[in-house]
Specification:
It is a single chain. The protein is 35% helix and 22% strand. The protein is built from nine helices and eleven strands. The longest helix is centred in the first third of the chain and has 23 residues.
Length: 315
């Protein structure tokens, strides 16, 4: 009986690690969901290997334990690879730099019953710029929102639908909205806003799920080409439906010179809380600095947690 349990545990651990190891040999969109969960699946396989050793001490379980540990360590290395370096300004200089706030949140299209609560969050957030994804639930609340944020792209401005939305307290110097690929319409917004004399580029993106064929990779490629032409400080927020350790996400960050905070707050699944994964991101390109990126603790009925980001642009 002990040998049977040992074999079952080793088989399960082997399958989990084989799925993760496949990324090092090939790039298949079918594996995309598991690639974003490499840390979690590695830890699960390690637990299975340790449990197997309780039932039987054998070299194969030790091998699985070591292999799982290697994959877990490499996942952390990848999580840090494109992280922004800490600000190197001395305290006196840091105090002279003004900080701004960005609120970004996928509020879920079917979350209609919480539209008023989410509108309260937006109005009371004191954010300079707000980026909302799947914005339909706040469609009926727009009038009181635009009293605070009179400038917007989305929900009737530049598009008839209410999906991707940027709200600003300051007028736009430049604004554009377009589709990334053929799966979804109007899910990329790029706007330039004068932040107290400093033009800042704000980008908003909502990508398809990476296990829907190769759409996710195509969308990232299109967006990378668009962002390469952007000059000046740039901050990109969005629902990417993938971790930064996914192969196409790593390539995107490399090509665009965008960086993220480390560690990133978990945003999905809601049931995972702080132990979930970050699939909603805020990326920045120097000289813009991410001072903090924090999870909104109340998802307000959405299947994602929102993010509040404080950033600055050194003079």
């Amino acid at each position: 009986m002990r040998h049977t349990i040992y074999c079952v545990l080793c088989v399960l651990a082997s399958l989990a690690l084989a799925v993760l190891a496949a990324r090092y040999a090939t790039d298949l969109w079918l594996l995309a969901f598991f690639e974003s969960l490499q840390t979690h699946i590695s830890l699960f396989a390690i637990a299975l290997a340790l449990l197997a050793l309780v039932f039987k001490r054998h070299w194969y379980a030790v091998f699985l334990l070591a292999f799982g540990a290697g994959l877990a360590v490499h996942s952390v290395v990848m999580l840090r690879e494109y992280a922004a370096s800490p600000a190197a300004n001395p305290p006196a200089a840091a105090e002279a730099v003004k900080t701004f706030k960005l609120l970004s949140f996928n509020i879920e299209d079917s979350n209609l019953e919480n539209g008023a609560r989410i509108a309260d969050l937006i109005v009371g957030s004191k954010a300079d710029v707000v980026e909302i994804f799947e914005a339909s639930p706040i469609g009926s609340q727009l009038q009181r929102i635009i009293d605070i944020y009179p400038y917007r792209i989305g929900c009737g401005v530049m598009t008839n639908d209410c999906d991707s939305l940027i709200l600003s307290k300051r007028p736009f110097r430049m604004q554009s909205m377009r589709s990334l690929g053929s799966l979804w319409d109007n899910r990329f917004i790029l706007a330039t806003i004068d932040m107290d004399g400093q033009p800042v580029n704000f980008a908003s993106a909502h990508l398809s799920k990476p296990y829907f064929d190769e759409f996710h990779m195509v969308e990232l490629d299109i967006m990378a080409q668009l962002l390469k032409d952007v000059r000046g400080p740039l901050i990109l927020a969005g629902d990417f439906n993938a971790s930064v350790i996914a192969p196409d996400m790593r390539y995107f960050l490399k090509e665009t010179d965008l960086r993220h905070s480390f560690p990133e707050p978990a945003t999905w699944p809601i049931s995972g809380g702080a132990y979930g994964i970050a699939i909603d991101h805020v990326f920045a390109r120097a000289p813009l600095q991410l001072n903090s990126v924090q999870q909104i603790p109340d998802a307000m009925g959405s299947n994602h947690y929102g993010l509040v980001t404080e950033f600055s642009i050194p003079r």
